[in-house]
Structure formats: structure tokens, C-alpha cells
Amino acid sequence: MSDLSLAAAISFPPAQGAPRQLFILLHGVGGSPQDMVPLAATLQRAFAEAAVFIPPGFAGFDGGRPGRQWFSVTAVSDENRPGRVAQAMPALLALVRGAQEHFGVLPPDTALVGFSQGGIMALEACAAADGLAGRVIAFSARYATLPSRPPLLTTIHLLHGAADTVVPAEHSRVAMARLSELAGDATLDIASTVGHALHPSLVGRAIVRLQTCIPLRTWKRALGTVPAMEPEGRRQPH
Fold first, then answer.
1. Could you give the CA distance from residue 24 to residue 77 in angstroms, rounded to a whole number?
2. At 77, is the secondary structure helix, strand, or coil?
3. With a cut of 70, which residues of the chain have pLDDT below it?
4. Fewer Cβ within 10 Å of end Cβ, the chain: N or C?
């Protein structure tokens, strides 16, 4: 991870000792790492041994006000969004791996948490590199391109407000349907009166999912229906 990324990011170490978990929070378009600080505090109350890393978007917001973005939304469309995400993806993959190395936390113990555009990047990162993180928590987000294969090493948690007019909740419903069709490990929670926001009800539900959902791959491994696997081709020790 570059010195520039470290200098511009906000980091929170665990209360004591070395981190055993890592949350990487990706803000929405036109936002900043500061926007995600309340969520970071909530996560650390629930997971005392976790470190939290909040990087800024890769470019200045081109929407006419201060802020950062992961990719441009000027004249963005369903047709050109995948290309813009793909262009930003190598830098994000390098950033995540650099943060894991910096904090000494392995990919299975990492969670990518994104809001809106940050959620798009989190979903697409683990589609591009399955096992980059053990969990993805995507608030008010969508896939740029629906997956064609299931995530084998990442559990996806989709959280959305039913009243979201910026990124309609139908995107999460469609994503959940596709992941279910592929037998991917995913959950979906939709809050009936919530709009496009990191609403406390959705954050609370995300905490419950993180604390109570045992990944499907863990169940399958325990039942002996799949071989033990680790990300990036590493084998479990025998």
C-alpha cells in the first residue's frame, strides 16, 4: 500500500493487541472517509478485535462539489459502467491487499463494506478476485455486471432501503436472485421505509448477519461435500 493511500485514509486499530479482523470501508460517490466513521465506530463496538481502514476514492468528484469517487458518474450508463469499474479495479485490489499486509490480517478475516458506489466496488472486487475478502457487505449498491459464477470463498450480504430512488432496491433483489441461481452464499435484507442511506436499521442488520451467519462454504466443508480451499490457490495445511 502506498504512503499516499495511508496518509489520506482513516485507520482505527483495535482497542488492544494485534487485529484479528479487518474491515475496509468504501464510501459513496462524492463522499469521503469521514462519512464512514460512524459505521466504523459501530463495527468496533461489535468486533473489539477488529481494525478498520477507510481509504478515499481514487479521484476527485466530478459532480461539482467537494468529495471523492471511485469512478466517474458523468454520463454513466448501464453500458459504460462496467468499463469504468474495470478501469478502477486494479488499484482497488492492490489497496485491499496492501491493507491486509499492513494490518497483518488474512483475506478470510477481511470484510469489504461499501455504500452506494463503494458497494459497487466491493461487490465487483470479490467478483474479480474471489476470496479477496471473506465477506462483502454492500449497502444501497448493485453489481455493474451480474456475476456469471458463484463466489466460492466470499459471503455476500446485500442491504437496501425499499424507498431508495438513487439505486433502487430492485438491483439487490436481482443480484440475490442471480446469486441464488448460481448457488452462491448470499443474504438480502430490505428495510421498508429507508431511502438511500446508511440507516441504523440496515447497519444493525449487517451486524447481525456478521455475527450469526456461518458461511455456506464452512457448512459444506464440515459435511465433507467440498475440499478445503484458500484464496489465491493456497492449500490448507495437512
1. 27
2. coil
3. 1-7, 216-238
4. C
Model pLDDT for residues 224-233, shown as the tens digit of each residue: 554 444 443 3
Contact 88, 128 (CB under 8 A): no
228, 131 contact by CB (below 8 A): no
pLDDT at 89: 97
Amino acid at 99: A
pLDDT for position 233: 35
3-state helix, strand, coil in the chain (%, to 5): 40, 20, 40
Which of 91, 85, 98 shows the shortest CA–CA distance to 53? 98
Distance separating alpha carbons of residues 105 and 60, to the nearest angstrom: 29
Q: Which three cell numbers stand for residue 67?
A: 468529495
- The three three-digit cell numbers of residue 49, written as one number: 478485535
Matching residue, cell 499486509? 101
Please give the Cα distance from 156 to 133 (Å, whole number). Answer: 10
Q: Residue 226 has what pLDDT?
A: 47
Chain center to CA of 111:
6
Q: Which residues contact 47 (CB under 8 A, 6 or more apart)?
A: 21, 23, 210
Helix, strand counts (H, E) of the chain = 7, 9
- The region, left, alpha or beta by phi > 0 then psi within -120 to 50, assigned to residue 70 is alpha
**Other Cβ atoms closer than 10 A to 89:** 19
Q: What does residue 8 show for φ and ψ, rounded to 5 degrees? A: -90, -15
Question: pTM score > 0.85 for this model?
Answer: yes
Question: Annotated active-site positions, please?
Answer: 116, 164, 196
- The Cβ of residue 82 has, within 10 Å, a number of other Cβ atoms equal to 13
